[in-house]
Amino acid sequence: MSDEEYMKLLDRAFANARDLASNASDFVIPKVDSLIQGNKTIIRNLGVLADKARRDPKEMARYISRELGVPAGVEELRLIISGKFQAAELDMRIQRYFETYVICKECHKPDTKLERAGRGMLYLMCEACGSRYGVKNY
Ligand SMILES: [Zn+2]
Fold this sequence. Notes:
The protein is α+β, with helices and mostly antiparallel strands. The protein has two domains: 1-102, Defensin A-like; 106-138, no CATH class. Helices cover 41% and strands 22% of the residues. α3 (57-68) crosses α4 (87-101). It is flat, with a radius of gyration of 20 Å. The termini are far apart. The model has no long low-confidence stretch (mean pLDDT 91). It binds zinc ion. Residues 104, 106-107, 109, 126, 128-129, 131 line the site of zinc ion.
């Protein structure tokens, strides 16, 4: 292989890598900023999480409450959870929320909405690719 051929090959490899990178969603699931105060855990950046997910903060409170099996409420865009929970655990739950209830499983984009239908059915609707599928209600 000549140097010229080799350079062409390299160019192509880099071009492919760039394509892959731009195809992958550059969406980053935000980290939880929490602190334990007495017998409560406070997620201080609920507003950021909800904004990023494009969900009502109350929706996220409802999910966290259901997941952890304890009451959780919204106060001034902070999530107040009864009980002590480590940031790593909360991060895991929030990550799962995004993976299941925000990011479209067909096109992997986060431009979605949740729709509650009758009989406790919950649907994820993707504005990017038009997919609509049922997800587990919470
Ligand atoms: Zn989609």
